[in-house]
Amino acid sequence: MPGGTIVTLFSILVTLFLDLRSELYGYNLFTLSFVMTASIGYGFTRIKNRLHQLCSLRSEKLDDSVTVLSNNIRGKNKNIYALEEKLTRYLLLKEVAESMSTALSLDEINSIIVEKTYRTIGKGGRLLLFLVDVEKQELMLSVSRDNLKVKNKRGDAFDQWVLRHRKSLIIEDVEKDFRFPADHTKESKALFRSLIVTPMISEDKVIGILRMDSAHELMYTQDDLRLLDIIANLGAVAVQNALLYSKTQELAIRDGLTGLMVRRFFMEALHQELHRSAMNRKELSLLMLDIDHFKDYNDKYGHTAGDIVLKHLARTLSSMAQEGDVVARYGGEELVVVLSGRDKVQALAEAEKIRKFLKENPVKLRRQETSITVSIGVANYPEDAVLEEELIRVADACLYKAKAEGRDRVCSK
Question: Which of 53, 242, 317, 404 has the greatest number of beta carbons closer than 10 A?
């Protein structure tokens, strides 16, 4: 551009010089007008170019600003979405806590844990809840939510690891995790690729395991595991409360010494069984048993001997009872058995079987084999009575008849 300007000016000056030498003054006007027009055009061109450059620079700056703002907006939207998702999850956690606080049944608690966990995590897959069997000290599957049949009801290598270490576990890809030997996870790989597992701890004891797994790798995050931990902690408290409530209910229904139903609940059960028998037009029999010379066991072997004898009798009756039968402690050393669906002949045979078994299978008292004998009274519905109070009165009268005739026998009306 500067070189072209110099050449143009030089050409104009040469033209003016030649015009002046030739004394052609009229052409000077054309030359001057051309020079002025060219100068004005050149000036406008320069201004236009500079304005274009400024506009280009400003446009680029605006584009950069728009890009930065767009990125900021996308980032803000992501943060808003993440916060909304967290808010939704924490609201669900609040719902979980409220639901668990009002439930007392263990089955209901377990269902709440599984359903609410599934909704809160919100990523599908299998969901398994294991509870620890206190007597066997092993995991037992309590509730599951999945489309696949759970093969191992006692948990796999991952569940056992969490149970032993009392720590949460997250695995992004089973095939790439080298903490577990391949032979331990061979079957697992066909069912899932990623998982999160957490222990349910109450009073410093692991009472269960809560687990989610998926057929896809990289399905769960640390945030998912933290939520699972929170639900497991809430669930552990709820499960412990349900177990204590169940135990309290059991103590109210069951006799503390023998574990048999107490008299009040026996009367309710007998009323229901009689109603059922009347509806189905079936017979029902009642056995009333009393330990012969019960006081002698306490006098000879001490007061704990009587408890041992009662426990032995309760275990025997419970083991010999059939489905639908009711065994209860009626009072003192008297026990009762409701034989559902059996007539008097069958009831007499059942009573004789019990009497013989007790006599032929002695119990150890102070390291001495001691034989136990019982007297048994038998009453039948509807042959002997149709009301529960009358049925009990007949069975009790038959029991005293057996005692009066020499004990260690079965009597009926």
Answer: 317
